[in-house]
Amino acid sequence: MKSKAFFSDPTSIVDHMCKSLAQQNPSLRYDASNKVLYRPTSHTSTKVSIISGGGSGHEPAHAGYVGEGMLDAAVCGKVFASPNFDQIISAFDRVATPRGILVIVKNYTGDKLNFGLATETYQAQTGVPTHIVTVADDVSVPYSRGKLVGRRGLAGAVLIHKVSGAAAARGLGLEEVAKVAQHVSDNMATIGCSLDYANLPGGGDLPSIPENTIELGMGIHNEPGAQRISPQPTIEKLVSQMVKLLLNEDDPEHGFLKFHEIPHSKSELALMVNDLGGLSVLELQAIANVVLECLKEEYDIKPVRIYVNTYLTALDAPGFSITIANLTPQLFSSDINLISLLDAPVKSNTWATCQPLPAVIPGTRTPEQEERSRSPKINQEILCDKRIFTGILENILAQVTREEPNLTEYDTLMGDGDCGTTLLAGATAAHALIEQTDESFTNLVKSLMKVASSVRSGMGGTSGALYGIFLNSFVSAVQKNYGEIQAVNIQLFAKSARQALETLKGYTNARENSRTLMDALIPFVNEFSTAAFTDNETAAKALERGLKAAQDGAEATKWMQSSFGRSTYVGASAGDENPTKGIPDPGACGIVAIITGIQKVFPVSN
């Protein structure tokens, strides 16, 4: 069924919502072209900036928490869809300070990759320190099911916004603010349930959860829950089961929240009972009391702070979630009082009780009038050989052009068929830089930044984000490592490639044997590094060895079970009759094509 709604356009409703919040709080600005709500920040501010965001439809998160003492900017994607790179970069531009930026994202692939790409790009281009904290508080996802992608991020993210914003307002540095956020995230758990799915603005009819049935652990984007319970239990039995999943440390599949031998009654716990969007205030408050009684009677717990309201929704889903954060001081290796951070004052539209407005709103500058610029900070003027740089770009394009039909064929069998064309678009965009008169390719860092930006823009999608994260991290590493090595040599590139690979691993759980591009990239970087540092090989020999390792890795993917991407659902090694058995992963083959192009510039002498 589909419920009635006043808005049928999912884009305009987000725009209207953000404009409304900006008009209610005169300290805020709204960048309509990028859907960014923010507090104007001086580029000389001594405060760490806090940025969050994600798909819309979870209001009041995240835009409702922009204000003094909480978020400095929220990036609003389309309904239930991650914001893109350009939107996120716009938010960075608006609020970046020399003290750095803390980015808070929920654990969803689109959010992690797009925010990760923007973070690595911004840090590489400006030198502004950045840090990401990923919130993954859903205890309904068992260890065995979520071991690769991890748990989903739910309403607990709002508590991270609160403590991080308060820590930043006190003047703490980026490292300390990130430590606060990460600790609370690591010691927090959430579980939700719903009677039915959410209705998307402008969406079609959705199937309904059957009558007399509860979806336990349903996600905030209509994702299936951990289980359906029918007949519908009493609210007391339901809450008891949910709280048990939150607090039972001995549950081998769900025991995420730890107390470290401190009794429940001696622990300092914050409780949040959150409306997923479709409950009345009457029902939500009644549910909260059932939760409090359960905690007291079954666990001898009396929370030190209780939050009952609408904090993070799934549009109009008729459900609720329970979050428990363990803020016991003995678990935190710092003298920062976490409870005091929760209590710190906030001036935002939806956390504070009210926001007083002056009789006359002072004249303000529009986002278009405000300064919005970045001055790339290049740590060193590192000279490089223009001939070699342009030769690499030319050879990569030539090799990818040759391999594109094969990559497209492979991806048609096991994916959506765009791997070859996407990689070719990235190689073409990078090659186009050769014709630009403002880039001479004699400055290594500037040239690498240009390539990273072109590849990201040209490719787009998940592949573009992965390549972009690796390349931008590589740029940062080259700048840093050149200060130590003081030479443009094989060791500089090998060390930087290894560091870029480690950064990329922080944004994806794909590793070798996952049937992805990592099956070629990881062996290449490892062998390239060994050749450069352990065996003191020449650049040509190190690239030759690295290419061979990448080729072997790509070849091995023919017989692997897919763990990531669309090919996961094809069942590539499900049986002899499967048409994808014996087909190499196109992403891994794409890495081989790129390395082949680079290696041809450095042929091994016989």
TrEMBL record:
Catalytic activity: dihydroxyacetone + ATP = dihydroxyacetone phosphate + ADP + H(+); D-glyceraldehyde + ATP = D-glyceraldehyde 3-phosphate + ADP + H(+)
Domain (DhaK): residue spans on this chain: 9-351
Keywords: ATP-binding, Glycerol metabolism, Kinase, Nucleotide-binding, Transferase
Binding site for substrate: 55-58, 106, 111
GO biological process, one term: glycerol catabolic process
Gene Ontology CC: cytosol
Gene3D superfamilies recorded: 1.25.40.340, Dihydroxyacetone kinase, domain 1 (3.40.50.10440), Dihydroxyacetone kinase, domain 2 (3.30.1180.20)
Annotated PROSITE patterns: DHAK (PS51481), DHAL (PS51480)
Active site (UniProt): 221
Similarity section: Belongs to the dihydroxyacetone kinase (DAK) family.
The keyword Chaperone is assigned to this record: no
Protein name, as recorded: Dihydroxyacetone kinase
